[in-house]
Amino acid sequence: MSIESMEFKKFPNNSQENETLLTDEMYQENLCKLAERIFVNENFIGKGNTADVFSVPEMTNVCCKKLNHSDIKPINSLEEEAEYLDKLSGISEKVLVPTPVVTIEVVKKVEKKNLRGEMVFVNVRESALLMKEIDGVSIEDILEGRVQNPAEFLEHLNVEEFFSELGNFIDTMNEQGIHHRDLHPGNIMIERGTLKPVVIDFGHAAKKYGDEDIYKQNVFKRDFDGRMKEVVETFISDKQRVEQAKIKILDEVKVLTLNR
Length: 260
Ligand SMILES: Nc1ncnc2c1ncn2[C@@H]1O[C@H](COP(=O)(O)OP(=O)(O)OP(=O)(O)O)[C@@H](O)[C@H]1O
Ligand SMILES: [Mg+2]
What we know:
Blueprint: E1 2-10, H1 15-21, H2 24-38, E2 44-47, E3 51-55, E4 62-67, H3 78-88, E5 100-113, E6 119-132, E7 136-138, H4 139-143, H5 151-154, H6 159-175, E8 178-179, E9 188-191, E10 197-199, E11 206-207, E12 216-222, E13 228-234, H7 238-258
Antiparallel strand pairs: 1-5, 2-3, 3-4, 4-6, 5-6, 7-9, 8-11, 9-10, 12-13
């Protein structure tokens, strides 16, 4: 595998935090080297339907999201996702959104068999999004029993306040015309220590410009016969999704209290 070309887009808008995540020297000197390493998978920290997330040992508190070319074609590119993160990561002190650092697009030359069975080199395009790594767990991680000590998150969590802050954040975001459209429990995290809500994964987000119905959109999904098909996806509103998560977390807190 060799890298043929690389393109970077740095996200400086929320620069206060970004300066500590990515200094100028690091950007100039190390990013090319880093990009070569990023496209070799390791240090896995999270999995979704469309992407995998890895930590980046060279950069403190930074993780890397890469598309996994699975059965669902992502709606937003990682660059578009980073633009949503950039716009929203500073708007609230009570609800966090990971600050984006940089997106990287590479063209790799990969050896592959062609239809005649001969080994040939083909160009493959890949992209990555580097963003702040959240120290915390997703609500889904807790519900699915993937958290070693859920009491660390649930014991002192004020569920009403958590979801009321999340609701306020959604109102502000929706007023700006931005809709997340995928606020399932895997995309809501709880920050360790502060127990603040964190909204991640703007891969399905959309901006509403006029009176168009952004809660319906054509998307590509792999069918049972293995082919990608275009289907109409109907999204659930951000507020409704968060209400569903709240009910599940309240149940989990009850179970924890009963078992004590
Ligand atoms: N900034 C972050 N810091 C820490 N962990 C993260 C971060 N972003 C994502 N993760 C972890 O990686 C998982 C997958 O990331 P993400 O939700 O962005 O992928 P996805 O494939 O788009 O998900 P979905 O299935 O919702 O479409 C998350 O559920 C979370 O556990
Ligand atoms: Mg997700």
